[in-house]
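Consider this pair:
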Amino acid sequence: MSDKNGRSNLKTILKNSTAAGLAALMLAGTLPVAINSAYAEAVKVQAAQVPSFADVVAAVSPAVVSVRVQSNVQDTASDESNFSFNFGGRGFDDLPDDHPLKRFFKEFGMPGPDGKGPGAGPNARPREHGEGKGRLRPTSQGSGFFISEDGYIVTNNHVVDDGAAFTVVMNDGKELDAKLVGKDSRTDLALLKVENPKQKFTYVEFANDESMRVGDWVVAVGNPFGLGGTVTAGIISARGRDIGSGPYDDYIQIDAAVNRGNSGGPDFNLAGQVVGINTAIFSPSGGNVGIAFAIPASVAKDVIAKLKEGGAVQRGWLGVQIQPVTQDIADSLGLSEASGALVVSPQAGSPGDKAGIKQGDVVTAVNGEPVKDPRDLARRIAAFPPGTQVDVSLWREGKATSVKVDLGTLPSEQALAGKEGDTQAPATEQALANMGISVAPAEDGKGLSIIDVDPDSDAADKGMKAGEKITSVNNQAVSSAADVMKVIDQAKKDGRTKALFQVESENGSRFVALPINQG
């Protein structure tokens, strides 16, 4: 081939070749020139990556279990002698074969009323002796986690409450029987133990939740909707939440997805330690909306240790009724700040009463530790064993003082309920209760705060609500239940059947007429 022909061929190649063809020629060494590619490169972003939770999940999952609870359920019919039909003088067996009831039992393979009979179906069996007088039935399920290699498991009280038999299901599907060691309704915690453990279990430990900050990552592992082994992640949304479940509310709020069945399950930090135990969710729909509440590890660690030791939690008891100190109250009492717990009244014969704590005192500290509010005081006192002597600092009549109190034992909820049932309310309070309202002195000392309204009462029908304030009755100022009843008694003597209540709310003041013939 001549040089002329070679140049002609090269021009043809340059004219007709694509970029890819040119690149191929360049790689082959035909063209001694550099030609840039016309194609763009894939997008790559150099940025900090969110940490994976896989290592945490792999480490902690063997320690998390599903908890299945069975309870004794009473059957509607207790035994064969109590379970019988009679149709116009005829028994079940006397009914014709095409009778609707016989067809029903036969079609659905159900035993007839005699436990066998023509409707028993091929898989039916006669009722065993004593069967039906109450048997174990599945009633609830939740989550839990091992805290020791010998099989101790933490879960919620509301998961195991009223349970008679307990089964834990491990993440590998293995089922183990467990027994209830103890439970504490006030903190919603319970402790189970695997019966006759034949292995050492993977377990987790509690974190120092005081080091956890709002915004820190948490990983929730549990058994939502019975699915088992489900992992969700989120952050700590808030701390110290009070959701009205009791005097010891101090919950961690998280936004990780928590649903029914997650109760009793752990929330882990990135070190695989338990920072909280799921106990409740806020949900208008019943499903997760990103607001869940967990028992802090510091609370759980202390309660679980006591349950493990004695099967119950004994708490110190002061025996005084308390309320928050508002800024108005603080100003009126000469306190520099609105903190502490105002004593409404000491219970007669209680440790606080015996030590000399009086109505109107403000508890400012316990053993030198400042008291923030009534919840803080309740938690501090409850943390001491019964019989402990504590130094209670008080603000009384514009001066600081202190008393020493030998704490009693906080009565159980059952004992408190019984005691309340045995105690007759004062006549004035009982009379107001008959009108459908319960009241307490207002914090500012002017009027009466409505603390409860019977939904079936005239007061409820007239729109009176808890949180509002009664300032006068029949145009006479009132500041106690006795003041109200004094006015009502006079109205009765005057032949009136109704009393005019002046009620204040955030929307203003209004008058409500209530019948007084029941008072």
